[in-house]
Amino acid sequence: MSSVHTAVLLHEVVNGLGLARNNKTLWYLDGTIGGSHHALAIAEALKFKVNIIGLDRDPSAIKRAAEILEGKAEKIILECQDFRHLDKSLDRNGITGVDYILFDLGISSDELENSGKGFSFLKDEPLLMTMGDPTNYTFTAKDIVNSWSEEDIANVIFAYGEERFARRIARKIVSYRDKKSIETSAELAEIISLAIPTPIRFKHHRIHPATRTFQALRIAVNDELSALKQGLVVGYERLNVGGRMAVISFHSLEDRIVKNFYRFLADRGAEILTKKPKIASAEETRENPRARSAKLRIIEKI
């Protein structure tokens, strides 16, 4: 099962974690194992003298990781789990603490291209946007656009997408659904495009008009910001002294949460190793446009 995902800030993560080679086999926890690129690079840097515990909401990501990482570490534990519950995974496997943690936030290229769940506005797929099994979710993106009030839709789009035309988009969605249920990602993308003033669409032609709304719906469906807040807290609690936590964020909502949490920890003795977040080089951005918005922040537990 191949991956189409390209890891961002790979070298910055490996270097920033300050991987120590000694006689002790260290624990690395990857909260978003995805295509396993970071995990594999870290294992290679440690000459495979590492134990890996990899979590992901997406069952297909766990299957890919099992194939890619086979034989690449002394011990490999893979679980289909939201990283906000990483403490449960550690307890279940008798692990008291870990030495390195990585959260690579957002959505992977594999989910965008191959999930068939409507994450991409460039595809015509069922409007789900669930990172995990849809049957385990309270609601999907389809439920939001077809059942929620105009005000609630607008609030979600504005709060999680920082979309200035949130109310216009919500109004257009409600007007459309009064005639026909909104079923697919392509259908929703067209509705959103019609809600954006034409001059704005042409002015910002490099950015699809549905970008912010799709981000907002995905965040709402997967409760991503609450998951991040909880994951940071339990992750730091289970980080060994001298251990490091790295987080790659892709938009200001995520980055603000990470930055503020790190400041809180620094006031209590932790050391922020990235006074300014690490960003992708011009070369990496050319090769992988998704990297242009990535920010890496690292903290060490003292």
Describe the structure.
By secondary structure, the chain is of the alpha/beta class. It has two domains: 10-110 and 224-300, Rossmann fold; 115-222, DNA polymerase, domain 1. 45% of the residues lie in helices and 15% in strands. It contains 14 helices and eight strands. It has helices at 10-16, 37-45, 59-69, 86-92, 109-114, 141-147, 150-161, 166-177, 185-195, 198-203, 211-222, 224-237, 252-266, 282-287, and strands at residues 26-30, 50-56, 75-80, 98-104, 239-249, 271-272, 278-279, 295-300. Strands 1, 2, 3, 4, 5, 6, 7 and 8 form an eight-stranded mixed beta sheet that branches. Helix 12 packs parallel to helix 13.
Name a few traits of the molecule.
15% strand; single chain; alpha/beta; elongated; SAM-dep_MeTrfase_MraW_recog; Rossmann fold; 45% helix; 2 domains; DNA polymerase, domain 1; 302 residues
